[in-house]
Amino acid sequence: MRYAVISDIHSNLEALEAVLADIEDSGIRDIIFIGDAVGYGPSPNECTEMLSERCKALVAGNHDWAVIGLSDASFFNEYARRAVEWTSEVIEEKNKEILRSMPLTDEDKKRDAFFVHATPRRPEEWSYLLNLWDAELNFYSFEEKVCFIGHSHQPFIVEKVPSGEVVTHTESVRIKGDSRYIINAGSVGQPRDGDPRACFAVVDDDRVKIVRIPYDIEKVQEKMRQELLPNPLIERLAAGR
Question: Taking Cα atoms as reference points, which of 239, 150, 189, 194 lies closest to residue 18?
């Protein structure tokens, strides 16, 4: 029952390679990707292809949909919109087809797990789950024991105990038989919680943990400069913001 959940790669090949290497070294075979293969970073083709080859399941994110014209990029901020426009120009058609093939949600009955990029409640609206009130609403929108999300680039674990109380955990939690969980896997390619290391989640039997992996940030920053991607997107990688 061991598997990894990765999200928000955002065309950051160096971060993705480091995470996949760590997952392989750990002996984990199954990887679930939950959205935003592209956007922001300089390697959309390489990342999309690698995810398609290595992941058991892939779920679409808002940047994936924006690049192929299924979501309106005018709602993005200036830098994100410019990156989407650049990505749309350089991504190959075969990789656009991979993005088009990704569903909004996926589920694994054997693992009793639900997978979505933004929220299980109205996933097509790309809302953010940022607080316990948001979590409380979203627990009613999936039937499985565990729901994995991404989108905010900030990892967390929310547990709903049998009494109905909702509590949070930061780095790991033991999966209890009578509780339910919403777990944000964080971001591989652009963390935003002050820690610039690539972030993802690992499920190991009855425990979920958030994993951090260092990668060559300067290398991906140089690639971004060469492609003339917006400077704020380049600088934020080192800050984890």
Answer: 189
Percent of the chain with pLDDT over 70: 100
Binned at pLDDT 50, 70 and 90, residue 72 comes out as: confident
Q: What is the distance between the alpha carbons of residues 48 and 101, in angstroms, rounded to a whole number?
A: 12
Which positions ≥6 away from 202 have C-beta within 8 Å? 2, 3, 4, 5, 23, 26, 28, 208, 209, 211
Residues 6+ apart with CB under 8 A from 183: 5, 146, 147, 148, 149, 156, 157, 158, 201, 208
Q: Give strand pairing partners of 166.
A: 160
User: Domains along the chain?
Assistant: 3-239 (3.60.21.10)
Segment (H or E) for 160: strand 156-160
Please report how many Cα atoms fall inside a 13 Å half-sphere around the Cα of residue 25, on the Cβ side. Answer: 7
